[in-house]
Recover the amino acids of this structure.
């Protein structure tokens, strides 16, 4: 019995020792796996590194980058896609080349056969066959075969085969095959195959195959195949194949293939193929193919093949039918109608309600001063 008990005790001791040895070996292997491996031909991090080194000043060549990478000053060459590590804290200063470049911050020239991006900011030049992007800011030049974008601001030149966009402000030049968009303000030049827009203000030149627009104020030149519009004020030149308009005031030149309009006032030159309509006052020179109207008054020179209507008018009006409550100036039409006339009417039929009965309706000419 004693011998049998000793055998059992020895067996238990051997088993425990084996388990402890296996655990230690497993921990050692895990530690070796987690530890970055690299052939470093460096002195104090200066030189050449081949592998997954953490810090290099010079040339670094690696198959696949991950969160072990901390900083590269020089040239970083990555042969394959970076690992999808959440804790990617690398900073690259210099040049990045490879299938896909990635760092927390990128400063310099970065070229990816597929694309690339920075979790935070990119300062310099980023070029990707598919796309380039950042979670923070872009300052410099970015080119993406499909698109270029940033989670915050873009300052510089951004080109995207399909589109260019940023979550906040854009300042510079943006070219997108389909469109360009800024979540907040846009300042500069934007060209979008379909359209471009800003969530807040736009200042500069915007060209969109379909349209150009902003939620608030527009200052500059807008050209849209279908429309150009601002949610608030528009100052500058707006040309659209179908329509141009502003939610509030428009100052400048507005041309719409079908129509042009404002929610409030218009000052400048307004031309519409069919209808020109303004919520309050119009001051300037205008043409409406079928109709030209203002909710309050018209001051200046306007013409239409059809109708000109407004509660008040000061200036020269030429149309088929001029229908104004209070008219001051010269009205030329087939039929001129005014409730109060202070000026001259020239046309086939001229009606001035404030004249004496026999002089209210006259052919060819009517007047009142």
């Amino acid at each position: 019995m004693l011998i049998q008990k000793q055998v059992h005790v020895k067996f238990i001791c051997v088993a425990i020792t084996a388990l402890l040895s296996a655990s230690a070996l497993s921990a050692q292997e895990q530690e070796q796996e987690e530890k970055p491996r690299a052939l470093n031909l460096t002195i104090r991090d200066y030189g050449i590194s081949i592998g997954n080194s953490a810090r290099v000043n010079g040339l670094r060549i690696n198959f696949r980058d991950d969160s072990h990478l901390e900083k590269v000053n020089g040239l970083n060459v990555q042969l394959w896609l970076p690992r999808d590590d959440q804790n990617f804290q690398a900073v690259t200063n210099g040049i990045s080349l490879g299938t896909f470049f990635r760092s927390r911050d990128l400063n310099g020239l970065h070229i990816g056969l597929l694309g690339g991006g920075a979790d935070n900011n990119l300062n310099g030049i980023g070029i990707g066959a598919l796309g380039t992007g950042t979670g923070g800011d872009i300052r410099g030049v970015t080119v993406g075969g499909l698109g270029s974008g940033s989670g915050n601001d873009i300052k510089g030149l951004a080109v995207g085969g399909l589109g260019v966009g940023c979550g906040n402000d854009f300042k510079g030049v943006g070219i997108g095959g389909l469109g360009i968009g800024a979540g907040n303000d846009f300042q500069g030049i934007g060209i979008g195959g379909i359209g471009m827009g800003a969530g807040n203000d736009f200042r500069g030149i915007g060209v969109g195959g379909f349209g150009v627009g902003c939620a608030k104020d527009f200052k500059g030149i807008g050209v849209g195949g279908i429309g150009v519009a601002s949610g608030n004020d528009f100052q500058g030149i707006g040309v659209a194949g179908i329509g141009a308009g502003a939610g509030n005031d428009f100052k400048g030149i507005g041309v719409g293939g079908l129509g042009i309009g404002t929610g409030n006032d218009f000052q400048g030159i307004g031309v519409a193929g069919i209808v020109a309509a303004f919520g309050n006052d119009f001051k300037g020179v205008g043409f409406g193919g079928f109709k030209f109207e203002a909710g309050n008054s018209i001051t200046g020179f306007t013409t239409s093949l059809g109708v000109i209507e407004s509660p008040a008018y000061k200036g020269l009006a030429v149309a088929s039918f001029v229908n104004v409550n209070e008219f001051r100036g010269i009205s030329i039409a087939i039929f001129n109608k005014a409730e109060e006339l202070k000026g001259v009417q020239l046309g086939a039929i001229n009606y001035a309600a404030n004249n004496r009965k026999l002089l209210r309706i006259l052919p060819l000419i009517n007047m009142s001063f």
Q: What stands out?
A: Residues 312 and 326 are 5 Å apart (CA to CA). DSSP finds two helices and 29 strands in the chain.
